[in-house]
């Protein structure tokens, strides 16, 4: 009985020894790590949505005081940067995108009863309306990391389409 | 009579105004092109996302009643294959890395909405676990593939959280080699 038991124990140990590394590999597979410090700062800034990440920049829409506003966060410094000339108290941002240098922001917003696509250049503090041809209602926007082109979802005659627009 | 030297302040101001004028007062300066045909009739196309270098476009189209991600080479519009997402649907909020190596996506699996990333170079599918009680609404993958931002709903509040992916993904950088099967790559 002693020998049998020993053999069985040895077999179990061998199986367990083989399975254990496999189990451990599964358990220890690399996981995405939350960026705790940044997440706490974002949480403190208020309810947020519609993130767009590019390079070391995060653009998003944050609600504060009952108003939605665009925020651009420098991830290296973990600080929001000012966007003078972009915000209007009567505008409602719907979608935002930023290039990899944090220089150009594309924004879809509702203003005075219409929805428009605008491009903001941070170095010039200048805002330009991007005309849609043929006309349509924009909703979501995406910007290439090199800032040279944007893709925008546009509603035309009841259908959603995607326009690709080169940025001059 | 002595010549007047131009004042640098005025020159800079003039250059700034000129740059603004040239950069878009008229619609002529905005080049446009089609994203290419969807391939199965006049389907809606939503949620566009460009790779960092602009050579791949992801969008969501309705196919057989299900929202499905469509990956297209630009500017040709050629449809690029995906290994996993063809059988995991519906999709929303696609996002691409610089060369289009990584495609991050929200996938509905039964009652659960999950964050997944397909590595087009290795064919591997990464499922990102999220904290319980939070439902992902949209996402954005950093162009280098090092981070992901996820908008989530939970506890009656919307929030954005960032995750570090460096332990999971190799960087996809501008200087990197193109993905096999991607536009411009050697066969």
Main attributes?
heterodimer, A: 168 residues, alpha+beta, Neuraminidase, 2 domains, 4-stranded antiparallel sheet, 21% helix, globular, B: 187 residues, mainly beta, Thrombin, subunit H, 3-stranded antiparallel sheet, 1 helix, 8% helix, 40% strand
Give a nutshell description of this structure.
Chain A has 168 residues and is of the alpha+beta class. Chain A contains two helices and twelve strands; from the N terminus they run H-E-H-E-E-E-E-E-E-E-E-E-E-E. Chain B has a domain at 82-164: Thrombin, subunit H (Beta Barrel).
Molecular structure report:
The complex is a heterodimer of chains A (168) and B (187). Chain A is α+β, with helices and mostly antiparallel strands and 168 residues long. Chain A contains 2 helices and 12 strands, in the order H-E-H-E-E-E-E-E-E-E-E-E-E-E. Chain A has 2 domains: 1-31; 36-166, Neuraminidase (6 Propeller), CATH 2.120.10. Chain A is 21% helix and 47% strand. The longest helix of chain A has 26 residues, at 2-27. With 187 residues, chain B is mainly beta. In chain B, the strands form 3 sheets. In chain B, strands 5-6-7-8 form a 4-stranded antiparallel β-sheet, with no helix packed on it. A 3-stranded antiparallel β-sheet of chain B has the order 2-3-4, with no helix packed on it. Chain B is globular, with a radius of gyration of 22 Å. At the A-B interface, strand 1, helix 2, strand 2, strand 10 and strand 11 of A face helix 1, strand 1, strand 2, strand 9 and strand 10 of B. Strand 12 of chain A pairs antiparallel with strand 1 of chain B.
């Amino acid at each position: 009985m002693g020998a049998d038991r020993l053999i069985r124990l040895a077999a179990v140990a061998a199986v367990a020894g083989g399975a254990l590394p496999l189990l451990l590999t599964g358990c220890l597979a690399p996981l995405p790590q939350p960026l705790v410090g940044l997440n706490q700062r974002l949480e403190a800034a208020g309810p947020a949505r519609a993130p767009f990440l590019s390079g070391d920049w995060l653009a998003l829409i944050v609600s504060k005081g009952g108003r939605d506003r665009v925020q651009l966060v420098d991830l290296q410094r973990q600080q929001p940067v000012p966007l003078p000339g972009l915000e209007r108290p009567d505008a409602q941002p719907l979608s935002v995108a930023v290039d990899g240098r944090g220089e150009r922001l594309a924004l879809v917003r509702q203003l005075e009863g219409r929805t428009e696509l605008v491009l903001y250049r941070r170095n010039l503090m200048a805002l330009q309306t991007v005309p849609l041809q043929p006309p349509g209602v924009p909703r979501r926007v995406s910007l290439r990391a090199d800032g040279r082109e944007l893709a925008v979802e546009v509603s035309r005659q009841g259908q959603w389409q995607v326009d690709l627009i080169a940025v001059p | 009579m002595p010549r007047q030297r131009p004042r640098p302040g005025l020159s800079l101001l003039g250059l700034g105004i000129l740059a603004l004028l040239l950069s878009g007062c008229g619609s002529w300066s905005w080049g446009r092109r089609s994203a290419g045909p969807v391939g199965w009739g006049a389907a809606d196309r939503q949620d566009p996302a460009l790779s960092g270098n602009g050579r791949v476009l992801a969008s969501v189209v309705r196919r057989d009643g299900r929202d499905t991600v469509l990956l297209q080479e630009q500017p040709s519009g050629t449809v690029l294959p995906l290994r996993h997402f063809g059988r995991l649907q519906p999709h929303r909020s696609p996002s691409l890395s610089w060369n289009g190596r990584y495609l991050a996506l929200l996938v509905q699996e039964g009652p659960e909405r999950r964050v997944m990333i397909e590595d087009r170079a290795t064919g591997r599918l990464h499922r990102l676990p999220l904290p319980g009680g939070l439902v992902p609404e949209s996402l954005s993958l950093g162009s280098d593939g090092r981070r992901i931002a996820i908008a989530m709903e939970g506890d009656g509040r919307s929030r954005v959280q960032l995750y570090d992916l460096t332990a999971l993904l190799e960087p996809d950088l501008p200087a990197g080699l193109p993905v096999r099967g991607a536009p411009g790559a050697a066969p």
